Known about the structure:
The chain is 23% helix and 28% strand. The chain has helices spanning 13-16, 18-23, 28-37, 58-62, 80-92, 106-112, 207-220; strands at residues 3-9, 42-48, 66-70, 95-99, 119-131, 145-155, 165-172, 177-186, 189-194. It has a nine-stranded mixed β-sheet with strand order 2-1-3-4-9-8-7-5-6. Helix 5 crosses helix 6 (106-112). It binds zinc ion (ZN).
Amino acid sequence: MAIRTVVWGENVHEQKNEVVRNIYPDGMHTCIARALSDDKDIQVTTATLQEPDHGLTEKRLAETDVLIWWGHAAHGKVEDAVVERVCEAVWSGMGLIFLHSAHFSKPFKRLMGSPCNLTWREAGERERLWVTSRNHPITRGLPDHFELENEEMYGEPFGVPEPLETVFVSWFQGGEVFRSGLTYKRGAGNVFYFRPGHETYPTYHDKNVQTVIRNAVHWAHNPMQRLADPKDAPNVPVDKAPEKIEERGPRLHQAGEKGLR
Ligand code: ZN
């Protein structure tokens, strides 16, 4: 079965900014989707902010194995109900790949639980990405480093929790460095953050960048059946404990009570 992948694009600068439109006439999400469609094991569609429910209904998310998220100008316009729905899908087992300025997107901040801030500079400088996790599946087919001639600088400290793995580190011409490929597990879902992709540069046309995103889709895919209720917190009564126990001391809750949230 092919990996059902949705590329979500905010689709704002492509409509408003001449430079961005010239690089991505059909939108950044379409460029990324086309690159993924070369892989016969990936079945790709797109969704945008402007669609009802931002294109991410319960049903659509239930039928999505991996979601890719690019946003920048309109993070605040993403409805909180959709953010919660996306996070629940991740906790249930959906993979989620956040690209570039999605570090400040609502679902990324919710899943990281930290400010996700960084330093930045828009000066078209060279970025050199180094593979830091040898033979990691996300690096399949890549050289030990590759360069993007023009990129926005993102610098450390990056305000995220310590990742499971650091897959790439970037060096920028101006001297800063940044952890540019990070993996996380949130609930049952695999999460990957990948740094490159400022909208005024042709980053998503780059073959190495496309390879990373394609590999990341395979890595993030969790083939296990989704959890029905990832936020369930059931009470286990005394008589259902794995070992026989005697109830002792006072208690707050009645048997069978749902508990406090
Ligand atoms: Zn940017």
